[in-house]
Every structure is written in structure tokens, then in C-alpha cells.
Design a protein that fits this description.
Length: 466
């Protein structure tokens, strides 16, 4: 079914690093390629000011990792021994944010530098936990994380070795507590500490492992990959609003197609999109092709700096799950178009229980799907009215996506492509040539006895438009 399953894990070149060194490996400027001029001048200025005020401060995490890989960082983070309140006292343009994980945002015009205080490990004994600073639920998931500690503690609390690198722009040295430089050079995603415990602390780390592996073209080290499948259902306990933000990062970073392959391979797709995962099981070729093509198109648009909308993305991710619901409603006697609308409503409500898709996106999703029922109705003035519809372009693109996945539409996509390029006279001819063809193309085809029986027999409902 899959063209090429992403290499979800790689055999480690050495035994897994379970603990952080008490003394870091220090790489001097002659031992690495980083230069302070590559970093945001505002972030460097924050580090210098905090150090001059007597605090420890470093550039940390993704910006260090990405620059070592010759990737331009999207943001620059600072880690410091100063508490959020102490940081705010040093910078008038600083604001403390967050409750679960208290941070400081320092604003420089449109650029924001995030400053985090060194974190420490959580106490294992519940009686020792201060609920104002640290709390877990019964499964071990961290609910609040404001236990401050040393630089060594902070390195221990980082999720992956490649994110536990600290760069001092003053001395131009890198501090490496977890063999992160080694793993960058060997293109490995490796969790710090015991993988199962770290995933239980925050199941979203499983999604982060996939995101980094896809973005960087790294493999997930075997010991870090092994617990993912059995722990994947823990994602169902993550707040739906947080999962929405994580899914946007997964699919709108320019690496959505390999990300999807890894999510399916590691059984992480099901807890995120349960109805679509079921469609992937019943109609694997069609569902995989449609979603993969949509994600490949999204990746291409991002690389070309073209706008992308989460609405189109979610419309494609959920579309393969829609026909089963439509068919079930039609079997209860509901007419095709109302069945389509009701099924869409049900599917979106169910999906929002897992991923809190905002209304500003669920409305366009419905409109894109609704356009699939309207595009076959072209007689009279309907074609021109559809062209003027603000959702026409998205609906037309979605029609072409369905056709590319193998749906039969009697050449509807080609007809609309020609109609857009035609002059007024040619358009009138095209409309007249439709003649007595039925307009309600999609619902009519869903009612074809042979197609419906064929799909029912295999437990595989026909898609709208087939």
C-alpha cells in the first residue's frame, strides 16, 4: 500500500544514553561550525545582559541544532538560571506567560525571544510535590512544570539529545550534556532518559519525535521508537486544543507527507484521526493516495512560499471517512444531499473531540465538501454562479485531488478546467452540450445499485462523486 514506509527507527551505534553527564563535553569554537553572528542579535543581547547581571544564560535547543545542520532557525530560545520574575526585572519589554510551563517573552518589534528558566526533575514522591509548581496525573503525565533547577538539571529534562545543546555566544562554546552532537552527526532522534517514562510524562513527545525525524530526515533510535506503538493511545488524554496546535506543526512545516507515513507506521494516526484511520483500513489505496497527494501539495506550496489553509488540509484528512457516514444515513431513508450535510456535521463534531479545530476552519471544511455536491450542477446560470463563489477555487482544487486519488467523476475536473479558460461564447456552448445529462451527478452515482452493492459487500462505502 505505502510507496515507501519511512524508516521509523534505526539501530543505535552505541548503547542508549540513559543519563546526563554531570560535566558536559565542551566544544570550543575550533571544534564546531557555529558563529555568534548566525544567531538573532536580540537573543545574543539577552544572553549577554543576563550574564552581566550575574546569571547563567545560553542559546539552547532548536536554534543550535538547526544551525549545526545548516538550517535557518525559525526562532531563538534562551535558557537561564534567572527566574521569570528576575528576567522580567531586567527587561522592560518582557512579559511572563503560561501556567503549565511559565516562560518569559521578550519583544523586539515583531520578533519575540523566548526565555525559560532552567527546569529540574519532578519529585517522584507525590507528597513532596508542590501543586503550585509541579503536578502529575495518575498515568504520570506532567500537568504543571515550574520546578526550577541547575543547568545540569535542565539538560536532563530536555526531551531529545539533539535539543540539549547550549551555546554561549560570549565564549562561543557549546556545552553538550547528552551526546547531542554525536546524534546530530549520526542523524538520530534519541530521547534523554527512559523513553517509556518520558513519553508518559508527556505523550506529545511521541509526536515531536515524528516531527523532528521527518523535518530533519533523521531516524528514531530503536530504544526511543519501541514504546511508541503501545503508548500511542495516551494521546487521547491530551487536551484537544493542544493537539490542534501540534497537528498544525506536524502538517504545516513543509514535511507533511513523510510525517503522515511515520504517524501511520507508528500507530499515532489513529488517536489523532480515528475515523480517517478506519477509512485507511477499509479503503487503503484510495485513502492513502488522497491524503498523501494533499499533503504533498501542501509541502510544495510551503516550499514555494504560497499560502496554505488548515481548512483544506483537514478537509482532505477527513474526506475518506465521510462516505461511510453518508451511506449509513441514506440507508435510513435520508435523501443524498441532506445525508451529505448531516454526515459532514457528525464527522466534524466527532473529530473536534480529539482535535479542537476552530470554527474559522470547520466552516470552510463544510463549504469545500458542499462544493463537491454543487460542482456537477452546471446547467443554466449555475456554472457562472459557482465561478463567483468565494469557495470555488478550493472546491475545484479538491475535486482535482479526488480525481487524482482515483475517483471517477465523468471528466468533471477537466470540464471545469476548460470552462474557466473559455470565453463567454464557448461557455454557452459547453452548457448547451450538457443537454439532458442529470445535474445531480454525485448523489446519482452514489445510488447506483452495482456500485453500492459492491462496496457494501466489501464493507467499503463509495466516496461522494464515485
Amino acid at each position: 500500500m505505502l510507496k515507501k514506509l519511512f524508516q521509523s527507527f534505526r539501530t543505535p551505534l552505541r548503547k542508549p544514553q540513559q543519563h546526563i553527564r554531570s560535566t558536559p563535553e565542551v566544544l570550543n569554537s575550533s571544534q564546531h561550525s557555529l558563529q555568534r553572528g548566525q544567531f538573532s542579535r536580540y537573543a545574543v543581547n539577552i544572553v549577554e545582559r543576563l550574564q552581566n547581571a550575574g546569571y547563567q544564560a545560553y542559546l539552547v535547543g532548536g536554534c543550535v541544532r538547526d544551525l549545526m545542520l545548516n538550517i535557518t532557525p525559525k526562532d531563538f530560545d534562551v535558557a537561564t538560571s534567572a527566574t521569570p520574575e528576575q528576567v522580567r526585572a531586567e527587561f522592560r519589554n518582557a512579559r511572563i506567560i503560561g501556567r503549565r510551563f511559565k516562560l518569559v517573552h521578550i519583544h523586539f518589534g515583531r520578533e519575540i525571544i523566548e526565555v525559560a528558566t532552567f527546569r529540574a526533575n519532578h519529585p517522584q514522591d507525590d507528597e513532596e510535590e508542590d501543586s503550585n509548581q509541579s503536578s502529575r496525573n495518575e498515568s504520570g503525565r506532567i500537568l504543571r512544570d515550574n520546578v526550577y533547577g541547575t543547568l545540569e538539571d535542565d539538560a536532563q529534562r530536555r526531551d531529545f539529545t539533539i535539543n540539549a545543546l547550549y551555546y554561549d555566544p560570549v565564549s562561543e562554546r557549546i556545552l553538550d550534556y547528552a551526546n547531542g552532537v554525536h546524534d546530530i552527526r549520526n542523524r538520530l532522534i534519541r530521547l534523554i532518559g527512559d523513553p517509556e517514562q518520558r513519553y508518559k510524562e508527556d505523550p506529545v513527545r511521541m509526536l515531536r519525535a515524528v516531527r523532528f525525524a521527518a523535518k530533519l530526515d533523521f531516524g528514531i533510535e530503536k530504544h526511543s521508537a519501541t514504546p511508541i506503538r503501545p503508548l500511542a493511545p495516551m494521546l487521547r488524554d491530551i487536551p484537544s486544543a493542544r493537539l490542534f496546535e501540534e497537528v498544525l506543526k506536524l502538517f504545516l512545516s513543509g514535511y507533511a507527507e513523510p510525517t503522515f507515513e511515520m504517524l501511520v507506521d507508528l500507530e499515532l494516526f489513529d488517536p489523532l484521526f480515528p475515523a480517517s484511520a478506519k477509512a485507511l483500513e477499509y479503503r487503503p489505496t484510495y485513502t492513502h493516495t488522497l491524503i498523501s497527494q494533499a499533503l504533498a501539495n501542501t509541502d510544495l506550496r510551503i516550499k514555494q512560499n504560497k499560502p496554505v489553509t488548515p481548512a483544506f488540509l483537514f478537509a482532505a484528512l477527513l474526506w475518506p471517512a465521510l462516505p461511510a457516514k453518508v451511506l449509513r444515513l441514506q440507508e435510513r431513508g435520508m435523501p443524498p444531499i441532506p445525508a451529505m450535510q448531516e454526515a459532514a456535521n457528525e464527522l466534524i463534531i466527532e473529530q473536534c473531540q480529539r482535535i479542537a479545530i476552530p470554527k474559522r476552519f470547520t466552516m470552510p471544511i463544510r463549504e469545500i465538501w458542499d462544493m463537491q455536491e454543487r460542482l456537477p450542477r452546471r446547467s443554466g446560470k449555475r456554472a457562472d454562479l459557482l465561478l463567483d463563489n468565494p469557495r470555488f477555487r478550493a472546491g475545484y482544487d479538491f475535486l482535482l485531488l479526488r480525481e487524482s486519488a482515483g475517483e471517477e467523476t465523468d471528466g468533471l475536473g477537466e470540464w471545469w478546467t476548460d470552462y474557466q479558460d473559455a470565453n463567454d461564447s464557448e461557455r454557452r456552448t459547453m452548457i448547451s452540450e450538457l443537454g439532458s445529462k442529470p445535474e445531480a451527478g454525485a448523489p446519482r452515482k452514489r445510488r447506483r445499485s452495482s456500485g453500492t452493492k459492491r462496496k457494501r459487500a466489501g464493507g467499503e462505502p463509495a466516496a461522494s462523486g464515485e
